[in-house]
Specification:
Strand order of the largest sheet: 1-6-2-5-4-3
Number of helices: 15
Distance between the termini: 60 Å
Order of helices and strands: EEHEHEHEHEHHHHHHHHHHH
Strand content: 5-15%
Structural class: alpha/beta
């Protein structure tokens, strides 16, 4: 049986069913989802037995035979929950001990296995699945499309709504780290009422948004050289490194190229699925593409590539390198030769 979060980021991950089976497998690399799945499982166990004994074992410090010791019957009785963390890093001894327990499950013991992915421990995973473990999938949340779905469902799970523009602003402000993104969603849900729009996000995270490479890139690609340089200087003064700003410039330009090359006549959602983007990104790139010709885009991409080389050690002044790239992009957008 596989239990999925309703979407990546659902707070109810792993809560399907009235109770917890003797074997649970939390599988996948996204730590935020894995932590929630484990917490949900523990809550269900304690709801059915407040006195359950919870034992945590870690692959890095595992001593052979420990699992058998912890799962052996207690003189005082009572149920146990044994959580094996980092099974993907398990030694041969730990894997052998887990396989032995799967072959002969202990009474009154719930075994929870946590595996972040990869081939190590695969035999244990396959055996657990054949033993009808409840599998809770925790897939990676990497792309903006993934993160858009994550934010949407964070709000949906609390019966709240957030606009696409607000999601974009939130991703620009705190979207690099999923745990920080989850915390930002929780704060907005707790501290606000009704629909969350971009003005609300600006109020809570405006400083971060203003200092982000996204605002710099938006202004440059729109041909607003002065505004882009102002935002760049504010970002640098706020401690933002030039490297990620150049990375955002490159990413935004690539999105314009990708969307411009996508099949015409398709809806934004169809193009987003084809390109691994969020629909709002497709809409923005389509709007941006209207003011560009292929040659100007090509020259702008070359300018960003040169800036990327300079900010990573190839040039003497990283900030000047970014400024030059911004001026090139802005003037190309305006139809003039840089």
């Amino acid at each position: 049986m596989t239990a999925h979060p309703s979407q990546p980021g659902s707070a109810s991950a792993g809560s399907a069913g009235a109770g917890v089976p003797p074997l649970v497998l939390i599988s996948g690399p996204e730590q935020v989802l894995a932590d929630r799945a484990l917490a949900s499982t523990m809550t269900l166990l304690r709801d059915s037995d407040p006195e359950v004994e919870v034992i945590k074992l870690y692959a890095a410090s595992y001593e052979p035979g420990s699992l058998a010791v912890h799962t052996s019957p207690s003189l005082f009785g009572g149920s146990k929950a044994v959580v094996v963390h980092d099974l993907d890093e398990a030694s041969d001894e730990l894997q052998t001990d887990v396989l032995a327990l799967l072959a002969a499950p202990a009474d009154d013991v719930t075994l929870v296995l946590a595996h972040k992915g990869g081939n190590r421990g695969k035999k244990v995973l396959d055996t657990a699945k054949k033993a009808h473990a409840r599998v809770i999938d925790c897939p990676a949340i990497k792309t903006d499309r993934d993160k858009t779905g994550f934010v949407t469902n964070e709000f949906r799970s609390k019966r709240r709504k957030i606009t696409p523009e607000a999601i974009r602003a939130l991703l620009e402000a705190v979207g690099k780290d999923v745990s920080e993104l989850a915390a930002a969603c929780a704060q907005l849900i707790a501290d606000t009422e009704g629909l969350v729009d971009d003005a609300v996000v600006e109020r809570y995270h405006g400083g971060k948004v203003d200092a982000s490479g996204f605002r710099v890139a938006d202004a440059a690609i729109a041909g607003q050289a002065g505004e882009a340089l102002r935002l760049l200087r504010h970002a640098i003064a706020s401690g933002v490194d030039p490297v990620p700003i150049v990375a955002v410039l490159a990413s935004q330009l690539r999105q314009v190229v990708k969307v411009g090359s996508a099949s015409r006549g398709l809806r934004s959602a169809e193009v987003a699925k084809q390109l691994g983007m969020a629909p709002w990104q497709v809409d923005r790139a389509r709007q941006t593409a209207r003011g560009w010709d292929p040659q100007a885009l090509g020259r702008s991409i070359q300018a960003v590539a040169a800036a990327d080389f300079d900010v990573k050690g190839g040039g003497r002044d990283p900030v000047y390198a970014v400024e030059r790239a911004i001026l090139t992009i802005a003037t190309e957008r305006q139809g003039r030769t840089a």
